[in-house]
Design brief:
Layout: E1 6-9, E2 18-24, H1 28-35, E3 36-38, E4 53-61, E5 64-74, E6 85-91, H2 94-106, E7 110-111, H3 116-123, H4 129-140, H5 144-154, H6 157-180, H7 189-210, H8 213-221, E8 223-228, H9 235-243, E9 261-267, E10 270-276, H10 286-301, E11 304-310, H11 317-325, E12 331-336, E13 352-356, H12 365-377, H13 392-413, H14 418-436, H15 442-450
Helix pairs in contact: 4-5, 6-7, 6-14, 7-13, 13-14
Bound molecules: guanosine-5'-triphosphate and magnesium ion (MG).
């Protein structure tokens, strides 16, 4: 396919040592020829330079010097997009990057859409769709675990497992279609059994992939953990402790925090969005009422509740009520102010881990982090669990594949028309193919690549 030439600033906008402008497409070298002059008079023009070489020179726009740059020439197909590619490293900073970029556009390139370089890598067969998504996951990863999971996906682990499912389904379909050519013959019982066994294997493999959806969601989106409790128990102090810096205002005045505060944190390798809230109480004024309303709303949306109690005071009847009210969610009960004499007696709360901490001294915070991890991950996080962690799109496709496979198996079991089984298997194969992009529509690709940043 003839691809027009696209360009983008591939580095974040801001001040830095370098900025990189990326150009990809059949006209990339001609665009570069028009704006680049080698420093050495005898230096080659980009279109004449050997592949994978770097050249010092200057970018010029209408006879005017724009910046001194290093220009890299990469000939197809050994490039990120598999197209002719030029990368211009100029001085970091908004202005030089933007001026070089504008020069490149004036020389005939078009501004790239978000993710368009990666989309071309996919369309040109260098990556499958799951691997392309992993590129975005790598860029957005906020903890080492999230990064490790994304790297596995880029390496093709998910694609490989999806391929195994597809092969199983394909073999069954091929068998059934061969049988359909001889409608007068019945399917031998042994053949039927072995086809059913294969379908069951495929279903088990799909089920195993689906079982990683929770982890995948946690690693990509982060766990939402809301910090609840009555005023002044130390909720904001806990937020600051878990973040490792003072984010929220802490004061002895009850009702200090009036709005919800959200901050991303890294707890034992898991990305956790901590939400500090206004204290739970009968609110006096309208602002406080709104604060309490937002608190309850955050609790409803949260994956995990950190319920903070002041261990140096007896249990308040309101606390007892809140302990009951939020019993349905995974939670950790945090007994704060353990540096003071304990006066709290806890009613039995079966479904919660209980951690004594002092947000003043930091004591117990490490154990609390372990408890948080255990609540959201159910045990230790091991690297091999991260080999495959599907995203919401994969989950949707796998569920459709699962249903269609089950229907096909039912048709076989009841010895109904093989035509129907073949139809359902094709639906299943189509769904599985969406994951790696074999059967992806333009709309689907648009959705996937919209998530990317410009320049990737
Ligand atoms: N002794 C002791 N004091 C603490 C501890 N944690 C918090 N405090 C104190 O308790 C008071 C309230 O702390 P905050 O973190 O503001 O409490 P909060 O729950 O966010 O309060 P509101 O936002 O008003 O609902 C402050 O004076 C803190 O210094 C602790 O572990 N030990
Ligand atoms: Mg507070």
């Amino acid at each position: 396919m003839a691809a027009d030439t696209i360009a983008a600033i591939a580095t974040p906008l801001g001040e830095g040592g370098l900025a990189v402008i990326r150009i990809s497409g059949d006209g990339a070298f001609e665009v570069a020829d028009r704006c680049f002059r080698p420093a050495r008079r005898s230096g080659p023009r980009p279109s004449e330079a050997p592949t994978h070489t770097v050249h010092l020179g200057h970018v010029h726009h209408q006879g005017q010097l724009v910046d001194e740059v290093l220009l890299t020439v990469m000939r197809a197909p050994r490039t990120y997009t598999r197209e002719p590619t030029v990368e211009i490293a100029c001085h970091g900073g908004l202005l030089p990057a933007r001026r070089v970029f504008e020069t490149v556009l004036a020389a005939g390139a078009r501004a790239a859409e978000p993710g368009e370089f990666t989309k071309r890598a996919f369309l040109n067969g260098r990556l499958d769709l799951a691997q392309a998504e992993a590129v975005a996951d790598i860029i957005h990863a906020r903890t080492e675990l999230a990064l490790a999971a994304a790297e596995e996906q880029l390496a093709g682990k998910l694609s490989f497992r999806v391929g195994l499912v597809r092969d199983r389904l394909l073999r069954v379909l091929a068998h059934i279609e061969a049988q359909l050519d001889f409608p007068e013959d019945d399917l031998e019982p042994e053949t039927r059994d072995s086809l059913l066994r294969r379908l069951e294997e495929a279903q088990a493999a799909i089920g195993a992939l689906l079982a990683t959806a929770y982890q995948g969601r946690l690693l990509r989106r982060g766990v939402r953990a809301v910090i609840l409790g009555r005023p002044n128990v130390g909720k904001s102090s806990l937020l600051n402790q878990l973040l490792g810096h003072d984010r929220a205002i802490v004061s002895p005045v009850p009702g200090t925090t009036r709005d919800t505060i959200e901050e991303p944190a890294n707890i034992r390798g898991l990305p956790v969005v901590l939400i500090d809230t206004a204290g739970l109480r009968e609110a006096a004024d309208a602002i406080e009422q709104e604060g309490v309303r937002r608190t309850t709303q955050s609790a409803d949306r949260a994956d995990l509740i950190l319920h903070v109690l002041d261990a140096s005071a007896p249990l308040d009847p309101e606390d007892a009520r809140y302990l009951e009210a939020f019993g349905g969610k995974p939670r950790v009960i945090v007994l704060n102010k353990s540096d003071l004499a304990r006066r709290l007696e806890l009613p039995p709360a079966a479904s919660a881990a209980i951690c004594a901490v002092s947000c003043l001294t930091g004591e117990g915070i490490g154990a609390l982090e372990d408890a948080i991890r255990d609540r959201i991950w159910q045990g230790e996080v091991r690297a091999e669990m991260l080999e495959v962690t599907i995203n919401a799109r994969h989950q949707d496709a796998l569920r459709r594949a699962q249903t269609a496979t089950e229907t096909a198996a039912g048709t076989l079991r009841r010895q109904e028309s093989l035509e129907f089984a073949a139809l359902d298997l094709r639906v299943a194969l189509n769904a599985v193919g969406e994951i790696v992009g074999d059967t992806a529509t333009d709309d689907l690709l648009d959705v996937v690549f919209r998530e990317f940043c410009i320049g990737k």
